[in-house]
Write a structure and sequence with these properties.
173 residues; alpha/beta; 7 strands; 27% strand; globular; binds guanosine-5'-triphosphate
């Protein structure tokens, strides 16, 4: 059985690429799986975890294509800019669409409240409230304050996700 994939998402400027770059091995490569329509995903592995990162910003029209990959997804990372209170509701819409997808039910999700180093960042508790994470009942969720630039908080969030994925697999067996 191939390792379950981790789906990465978040709005533009949330620090998604920065967090992903921190996780990526140095010799990572990008793959265009459907290059004819310009739909690209980035894949890499870190330890036992296999990542599939979709660029979810600005390419909503390809959503129905990448949704085919949701069946292989065993974990989700979702990045938010915790200094951007104005666009928090846009992030929430994106997150809600993911959370509502039938193929992603029960799939654990870690939300990175990113840019925590900036003075204007709101706390993870406030992010939690704005994104209404307490309403998530069908899957394990976790919020981790992170600094994509230094990687602070990123490994802890990813480790939590990895543990949840292992647990889920063993209960499904
Ligand atoms: P798109 O490529 O537009 O989708 O954005 P993205 O979500 O991938 O964000 P990106 O990683 O490009 O980061 C946006 C900006 O935020 C960059 O200038 C980063 O250097 C900065 N940034 C990312 N993470 C952090 C963080 O934790 N703290 C601070 N201070 N800046 C960050």
């Amino acid at each position: 059985k191939p390792p379950a994939r981790i789906l990465g998402g978040g709005r533009d400027n949330s620090g998604k690429s920065t967090v992903i770059n921190y996780l990526k091995p140095k010799k990572a490569h990008s793959e265009d799986i459907v290059p004819t329509v310009g739909f690209s995903v980035e894949t890499f592995t870190k330890g036992a975890l296999s990542f599939t990162i979709f660029d979810m910003s600005g390419q909503g029209r390809y959503r129905n294509l990448w949704e085919h990959y949701y069946k292989e997804v065993g974990g989700i990372i979702f990045c938010i800019d915790s200094t951007d209170q104005i666009r928090m509701c846009v992030a929430k819409d994106e997150l809600d669409a993911l959370l509502a997808h039938a193929d992603l039910s029960k799939v654990p999700i870690v939300v990175f409240a990113n840019k925590m180093d900036l003075p204007t960042a709101i706390t993870p508790v406030e992010c939690c409230r704005k994104l209404e994470l307490e309403k998530i009942l069908d899957k394990p969720w976790h919020i981790a304050a992170s600094n994509g630039l230094t990687g602070e908080g990123v490994d802890a969030g990813i480790n939590w996700l990895g543990e949840q994925m292992v647990r889920l697999r063993s209960t499904r067996r």
